Amino acid sequence: MRIVILFLFTSNFAFAQYWGGQEINASDLSPWVAKSEIEYAGSYHFGESESESDLRVFFSDGCIIGQVLSGYWEESTGTLKANYITLTHIAIDKNGKFTSDQHSGQFIRYKTESGDYIKGLKINNPWSSWIEDSEFEIGARTELKFEDIYSGKYRQASFRKLHREELNQMGKDDLKLMRNEIFARYGYIFKEGGDMDKYFKKQKWYRPEHEEVEQFLTEIERYNVELIKKIE
C-alpha cells in the first residue's frame, strides 16, 4: 500500500479564485494528469495574509495521510498559534482527482495571461473562507525538499516510517529525544524544568504552544512513536 502525505502550512506564494486581486476564469484551468503520482509531490499554497495555508504532498510507504495546518489568533494571549487537522481517506486517482473525507478537488494547470502554465490544486470545497462566496480555491505548487520542512535532529521521524534495525543502533537517550521531538514540532508544552523542557527551549525552531498535540499526529508519527517506545 502506498503512502501519500498531505500537509497544509504557511508560505509566501499564493493564488486562488482570485489571484493577485484578479478573478481566475475557469476556462483557463485544465486537468493536470501526471505520468507518475510522484509528480504531484510538492507544496500547494492557498490564501493570503492571515488566511494563508499550504498543502504539502509527498509519498512514503504503507498508508495515505493528510494534514492541514492553519493559524489562529488566541484571544486570551493575542498570539498567533498553529492548528493542525488530519485529513482522512485521501486518494489521488490516475486522472489527478483528489479526494478525502474533508475536501476534494483536482490537480490542475492554470494558463496565465502570458501563456505560461502554473501547476496547482483546485479545491472545490475550500477550508478557507477568505474569498467571499468563492466556489473553489487554487493552491500554486512550489518545489520543496521535505528534509528541509521539519526541524530537529531526527526530523525523519515525521516524514517516513522508521525501521527497528536503525533504532536498535541508537542509545536510550537519543531514542527519547527522537520520540519527544515529534511532539515538539507541534509546539507541545513539556513539563517545566524537565529534561525535555530544558532541551527544546534551547532550540531556535521550538515554539511551546499546545498542552495537547496527540490529535495532530499523522499515522506515520503515531507508528514511529509506538515503535520507539518498544525499542526504549
TrEMBL record:
Signal peptide segment: 1-16
Taxonomy, superkingdom: Bacteria
Transmembrane spans: none
UniProt keyword list: Signal
SMART domains per record: YARHG (SM01324)
Domain YARHG: 150-232
Pfam entry (one): YARHG
InterPro entries, alphabetized: YARHG_dom (IPR025582), YARHG_sf (IPR038434)
Annotated protein name in UniProt: YARHG domain-containing protein
Organism this protein belongs to: Zobellia uliginosa
